[in-house]
C-alpha cells in the first residue's frame, strides 16, 4: 500500500470512527430518499403512498425481529400483509373522494390485524400468550396506526404541502438538536435510553422546528405563523420521544441498528423513529388549525 493509500484509508477509518457511519454512503442514501419524497410529492402522490406502504412494512419487519430478540413473538404475517393494504386501500378511497369509507378502511384494517394476530397465536397454546399478543398489538399500534396519519395528511386539501411542512419541521428539529447537542450538550436527557441526547440539544431542536414550522406553514399553506410555530414545537417534542422509543426497543433487544437495509443509515426504523410518532401530532395540529 502506498503512503497516499494509507493516508486515505486512515482518513476513512478516522472519519467512520467519529461519525459511526460511512458518511459518503449515508449522504448518498439520504439524497436518494429525499429525491423520492420530493418527486412523488410534487408529481406522483400515488408514488408517495407506495413509499409510505413500503417504509411502514419494512419497519414492521424490523420491529418484529427486534421483539423476537426479547423473547416475544408477534404475529408477523398478519401485520406485514395488513399494513400495505391499509395504506394503499385507504389512499385509493381518499383519492376517489370517499373520505368516510377511507377512514372506515383504516379502522377496519387495524381491527382485522389485531383479530388475525390473536387468531394465529391461539393454536400455539397458552405459554407466553399474553407476551406474544401484546407484542403484536404494540407493533400494530406503533406502525400501521401511527403511520396511517401520513396518508391522512396527504389526502387533505393541499396534502403534499402538509406533508412537506411536517417533514421540514422534523428535519429542522433533528439538525438543530444535533448542532446544539454538539456545541452545548451537558445535561443528559435520558442516559439509560440514549446517552448522547441532551436537554440542550432538545432545546435547540425545538427552536429550529419552531422557526421552520412557522416559515413553511406560512409560505406553503398560507396559514398563520403561530399555527406553524405550534406545529413545529409539537412535532419536535413528539419526534424526540419517538427517537427515544426506538432507542429503548433497540437497547432492550441488544442491537445497534434495526437492520442494514439502508446503506449508511441502518434500518428503515432508524429513519422512521422520530417521524412515526411526529406524524399523528403534525396531522392533528394541521387538521384542526389549517383550513
Automatic annotation (TrEMBL):
Quote the pathway field.
Phospholipid metabolism; CDP-diacylglycerol biosynthesis; CDP-diacylglycerol from sn-glycerol 3-phosphate: step 3/3; Lipid metabolism
Keyword presence, Nucleotide-binding: no
Keyword Lipid biosynthesis set for record: yes
Which terms does the record give in the GO molecular function aspect?
A: phosphatidate cytidylyltransferase activity
Q: Which Pfam families match?
A: CTP_transf_1
**Localisation per UniProt entry:** Cell membrane
What does it catalyze?
a 1,2-diacyl-sn-glycero-3-phosphate + CTP + H(+) = a CDP-1,2-diacyl-sn-glycerol + diphosphate
Name the enzyme group at the top EC level: transferase
Q: Name one GO biological process term.
A: CDP-diacylglycerol biosynthetic process
Protein topology in the membrane: Multi-pass membrane protein
Its Enzyme Commission number(s) read 2.7.7.41
Give UniProt keywords alphabetically.
Answer: Cell membrane, Lipid biosynthesis, Lipid metabolism, Membrane, Nucleotidyltransferase, Phospholipid biosynthesis, Phospholipid metabolism, Transferase, Transmembrane, Transmembrane helix
Renumbered to this chain, the signal peptide range is none
Gene Ontology cellular-component annotations: plasma membrane
Q: Where are the transmembrane segments?
A: 22-42, 79-96, 102-122, 134-155, 161-182, 202-221, 227-249, 272-290
What family is reported? Belongs to the CDS family.
For this entry, the protein name equals: Phosphatidate cytidylyltransferase
> Which organism is this protein's natural source?
Propionibacterium ruminifibrarum
Amino acid at each position: 500500500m502506498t503512503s497516499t493509500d494509507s493516508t486515505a484509508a486512515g482518513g476513512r477509518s478516522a472519519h467512520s470512527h467519529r461519525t459511526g457511519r460511512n458518511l459518503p454512503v449515508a449522504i448518498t442514501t439520504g439524497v436518494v430518499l429525499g429525491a423520492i419524497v420530493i418527486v412523488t410529492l410534487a408529481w406522483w402522490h400515488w408514488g408517495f403512498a407506495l413509499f409510505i406502504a413500503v417504509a411502514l412494512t419494512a419497519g414492521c419487519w424490523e420491529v418484529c425481529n427486534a421483539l423476537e430478540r426479547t423473547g416475544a413473538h408477534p404475529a408477523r404475517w398478519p401485520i406485514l400483509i395488513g399494513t400495505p393494504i391499509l395504506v394503499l386501500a385507504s389512499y385509493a378511497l381518499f383519492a376517489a373522494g370517499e373520505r368516510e369509507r377511507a377512514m372506515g378502511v383504516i379502522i377496519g384494517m387495524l381491527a382485522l390485524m389485531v383479530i388475525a394476530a390473536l387468531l394465529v397465536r391461539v393454536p400455539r397454546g397458552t405459554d407466553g400468550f399474553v407476551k406474544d399478543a401484546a407484542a403484536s398489538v404494540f407493533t400494530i399500534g406503533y406502525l400501521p396506526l401511527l403511520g396511517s396519519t401520513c396518508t391522512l395528511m396527504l389526502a387533505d386539501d393541499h396534502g403534499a404541502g402538509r406533508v412537506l411542512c411536517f417533514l421540514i419541521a422534523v428535519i429542522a428539529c433533528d439538525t438543530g438538536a444535533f448542532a446544539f447537542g454538539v456545541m452545548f450538550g451537558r445535561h443528559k436527557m435520558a442516559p439509560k435510553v440514549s446517552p448522547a441526547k441532551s436537554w440542550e440539544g432538545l432545546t435547540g431542536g425545538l427552536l429550529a422546528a419552531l422557526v421552520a414550522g412557522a416559515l413553511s406553514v406560512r409560505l406553503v399553506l398560507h396559514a398563520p405563523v403561530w399555527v406553524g410555530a405550534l406545529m413545529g414545537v409539537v412535532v419536535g417534542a413528539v419526534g424526540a420521544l419517538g427517537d427515544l422509543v426506538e432507542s429503548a426497543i433497540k437497547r432492550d433487544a441488544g442491537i445497534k441498528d434495526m437492520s442494514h437495509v439502508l446503506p449508511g443509515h441502518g434500518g428503515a426504523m432508524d429513519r422512521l423513529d422520530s417521524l412515526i410518532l411526529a406524524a399523528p401530532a403534525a396531522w392533528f395540529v394541521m387538521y384542526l388549525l389549517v383550513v
